[in-house]
């Protein structure tokens, strides 16, 4: 019997590719309607996924007050989407991304406690510290606290929330899971140590099986060093995928979606990534390196290095932007057939590269439907994916133990 | 135009955070012809009413959902986002009732102004969503709010759409009053001052003399009633039946704002200040 594969659907807006909303199989209007989320909820339950995760930010896309014209946005608040999905599903876990830097322990504790009750024990918390500098002015601040400070605050906030949950559970009767399942995605040393101390599931980006193995070994060692059981933590790297009848057809399909990213979209996307508005520059002209370095609020040294070579060979701005959108952002992007994908997933899990995958469909809902219709039955036939849910709570679905500390009054 | 009687009810019982109970309450309120269901009570909040409103959104077809929003823990950026989402998911049946819970009325008013300023950063018709041309939205119809108030400073734009109703229906409980223009509905007890609002609801006990209230509605003294429920399913059935003569035949289609005849008159924060 192969090791069981855990599946998570990481959904944010209309899909993982910035041009995905233009695909015929995408339903960009759907993201504002309940019907769409009810369908997505039923779809992931049919695929026996552990959970739906909605990523989240606390700033709007755009640079210096100019909102992009070609990128699908805004998205709706994940708490609302997941709580509404809870109402129309029975099993799938509901993981809400929420920032420890811009939420109070009281506010988030109340929110998750109510989500856990209303979902019958299916709540999870993707604990993020918020990294985008544009967030601070939305909360009356000038600057984000620096990263190690943010992780210190995160540890305090989580500890305070745990104390509130214990107190509330004692007073009102416990919510089904006592507290949400803790999920984290730290990559830095600070982030990984924080994850090792509390996370029950960990997202990461692992573009190759070797990187997956290295990350999982590192995390398991950190978890053990923190005095916890490494088998009580699920490592879930991101996986984007493009499926077709043949590998050649999948590559062509991928190319066609990327081609939907026209120059205007690419320049807006690049502007956002550099935090510098480039929409006023001639796409046929040179990359305005000095302008970018004077405007960006991201680390100038890193950006300077990344721009050095394209600027030196005289690459026009438009071409550079198009290339940028086409370069995968550190996640594994699979292109091929359903059985190739199923085999790859089984191979990664068997090799100890991960415990499952955080699927990031290129566009929604079309590509996720194809996965559930075609890849899920292959995984089930191979004995790698459950036929039915083992229980009703997210922690049961993930096969994770309860923490004795959550029970104490 | 004939005036429509407004029936409002509130549930503060922690049983509301039990999905089996909540399902019964929501069904009973829809059946009874309730227009506004207040989730939570200003003097006790043992759950997050916004979560319950979102959970209830797929279950309502005419019932307006009105989560209490406490300035004790809420921040306008978070409030603007979650209420926008719930308004869409419910098909435009959302209201909100900001309460101070021990905080100041000034802070509560600032929370309302800041939240509205974030919603006003987006125009109703900003989305284009044209797959052919690749234009998703009209960038000239989104702007930072740059709101600086007495308690909150929020730059924006908020990463949430302007709500389906423009702004969800704003309800003020006179037990936790705040002063802003454009309050849609106010709830006050007999003898308590009614803050200025488009509609006035009298707070009554579940066993109130309904016939006497119908007379006061007909005389234009009040626009409807608000009942704080203690035993929701039983009381809703009774009140629904007793009020049937004046609640039957009211419009049931459209958003909550449309149905209650409450057009959004405020366009943006600058008009509000002026
Ligand atoms: C798959 C994945 C999903 C993530 N989703 C979010 C998100 O929705 N919101 C957010 O603010 N950060 C998100 N992050 C960022 C992480 O929380 C974290 O900050 C990032 O991986 C960098 O690690 P560090 O904080 O240790 O530097 C995500 C990261 C990964 C790998």
Task: Provide a compact summary of the structure.
The complex is a heterodimer of chains A (409) and B (274). With 409 residues, chain A is of the alpha/beta class.
Which CATH first-tier class of the largest domain in chain A would you pick? Alpha Beta
Stretches of chain B where pLDDT falls below 50 for ≥5 residues?
Answer: 269-274
Proportion of helical residues of chain B: 25-40%
Can you give the helix content of chain A as a percent range? 40-55%
Shape of chain B: globular
Explain how this protein is built.
- The complex is a heterodimer of chains A (409) and B (274).
- Helices cover 45% and strands 12% of the residues of chain A.
- Chain A has helices at 34-46, 78-88, 105-118, 147-172, 189-198, 209-225, 247-259, 263-274, 289-295, 300-312, 317-326, 338-350, 366-381, 394-397, 404-407; strands spanning 6-11, 51-54, 93-99, 123-128, 181-184, 201-204, 234-243, 332-336, 356-359.
- An 8-stranded parallel beta barrel of chain A has the order 1-2-3-4-5-6-7-9, surrounded by 7 helices.
- Chain A is globular, with a radius of gyration of 21 Å.
- The two termini of chain A are 41 Å apart.
- In chain B, the strands form 3 sheets. In chain B, strands 1-2-3-4-9-10-11-12 form an 8-stranded parallel β-barrel, surrounded by 4 helices. Chain B has a two-stranded antiparallel sheet with strand order 5-6. In chain B, strands 7-8 form a two-stranded antiparallel ribbon.
- In chain B, α1 (19-31) packs parallel to α6 and α3 packs across α4 (105-119).
- Chain B contains 8 helices and 12 strands.
- Chain B has a single domain (6-100, 167-273), classed as TIM Barrel (Alpha-Beta Barrel), CATH 3.20.20.
- Chain B has helices at 19-31, 49-56, 76-89, 105-119, 210-218, 232-247, 256-259, 269-273, and strands spanning 6-11, 36-39, 64-70, 95-99, 127-130, 135-137, 147-148, 153-154, 169-173, 185-189, 199-204, 224-229.
- Chain B is α/β, with parallel strands linked by helices and 274 residues long.
- Chains A and B meet through α1, α2 and α3 of A and α2, α3, β6 and β8 of B.
């Amino acid at each position: 019997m192969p090791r069981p594969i855990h599946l998570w659907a990481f959904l944010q807006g209309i899909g993982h590719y910035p041009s995905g909303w233009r695909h015929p199989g995408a339903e960009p209007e759907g993201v504002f309607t309940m019907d769409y989320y009810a369908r997505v909820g039923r779809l992931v339950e049919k695929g026996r996924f552990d959970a739906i995760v909605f990523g989240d930010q606390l700033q709007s896309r755009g640079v210096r007050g100019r909102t992009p014209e070609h990128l699908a946005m805004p998205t709706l608040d994940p708490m609302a989407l997941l709580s509404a999905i809870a109402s129309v599903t029975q099993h799938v876990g509901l993981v809400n991304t929420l920032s420890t830097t811009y939420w109070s322990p009281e506010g988030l504790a109340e929110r998750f406690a109510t989500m856990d009750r209303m979902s019958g024990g299916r709540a999870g918390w993707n604990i993020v510290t918020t990294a985008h500098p544009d967030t601070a002015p939305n909360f009356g601040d000038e600057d984000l606290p620096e990263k190690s400070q943010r992780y210190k605050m995160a540890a305090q906030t989580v500890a305070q929330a745990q104390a509130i949950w214990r107190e509330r559970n004692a007073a009102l009767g416990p919510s089904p899971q006592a507290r949400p399942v803790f999920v984290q995605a730290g990559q830095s040393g600070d982030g990984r140590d924080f994850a090792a101390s509390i996370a029950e599931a960990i997202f990461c980006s692992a573009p190759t099986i070797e990187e997956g193995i290295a990350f999982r070994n590192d995390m398991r060692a950190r978890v053990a060093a923190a005095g916890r059981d490494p088998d009580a933590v699920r490592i879930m790297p991101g996986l984007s995928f493009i499926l077709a009848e043949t590998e050649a057809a999948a590559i062509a399909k991928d190319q066609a979606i990327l081609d939907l990213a026209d120059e205007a979209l690419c320049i807006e996307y690049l502007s956002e990534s550099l935090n510098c508005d480039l929409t006023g520059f001639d796409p046929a002209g040179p990359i305005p390196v000095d302008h970018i370095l004077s405007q960006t609020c991201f680390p100038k040294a890193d950006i300077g290095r990344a721009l050095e070579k394209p600027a030196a060979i005289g690459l026009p701005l438009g071409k550079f932007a198009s290339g940028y959108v086409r370069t995968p952002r550190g996640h594994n992007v699979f292109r091929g057939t359903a059985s190739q994908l199923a085999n790859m997933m089984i191979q990664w899990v068997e090799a100890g590269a991960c415990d499952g995958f955080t699927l990031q469909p290129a566009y929604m809902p079309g590509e996720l439907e194809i996965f559930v219709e075609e890849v899920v039955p292959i995984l089930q036939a191979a004995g790698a994916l459950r036929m039915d849910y083992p229980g009703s709570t997210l922690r049961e679905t993930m096969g994770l133990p309860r923490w004795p500390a959550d029970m104490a009054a | 135009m004939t005036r429509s009687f407004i029936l409002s009810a509130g549930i503060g019982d922690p049983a509301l955070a039990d999905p089996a109970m909540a399902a019964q309450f929501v069904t009973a309120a829809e059946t009874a012809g309730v227009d506004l269901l207040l989730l939570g009570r200003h003097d006790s909040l043992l759950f997050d009413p916004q979560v319950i409103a979102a959970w209830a959104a797929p279950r309502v077809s005419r019932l307006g959902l009105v989560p209490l929003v406490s300035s004790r823990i809420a921040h306008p950026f978070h409030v603007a986002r979650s209420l926008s989402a719930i308004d869409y998911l419910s098909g435009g049946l959302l209201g909100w009732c900001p309460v101070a819970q021990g905080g100041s009325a000034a802070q509560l008013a600032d929370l309302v102004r800041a939240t509205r300023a974030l919603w006003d950063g987006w125009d109703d018709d900003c989305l284009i969503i044209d797959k052919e041309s690749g234009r998703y939205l009209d960038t000239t119809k989104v702007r930072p709010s740059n709101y600086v108030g007495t308690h909150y400073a929020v730059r924006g734009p908020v990463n949430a759409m302007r709500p389906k109703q423009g702004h969800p229906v704003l309800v003020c409980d006179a037990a936790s009053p705040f002063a802003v223009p454009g309050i849609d509905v106010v709830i006050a007890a007999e003898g308590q001052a009614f803050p200025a609002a488009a509609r006035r609801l009298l707070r009554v006990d579940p066993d109130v003399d309904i016939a006497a209230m119908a007379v006061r509605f007909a005389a234009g003294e009040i626009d409807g009633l608000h009942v704080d429920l203690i035993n929701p399913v039983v009381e809703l059935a009774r009140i629904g039946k007793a009020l049937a003569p004046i609640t039957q035949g009211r419009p049931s289609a459209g958003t909550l704002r449309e149905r209650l005849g409450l057009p959004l008159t405020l366009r943006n924060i600058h008009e509000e200040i002026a």
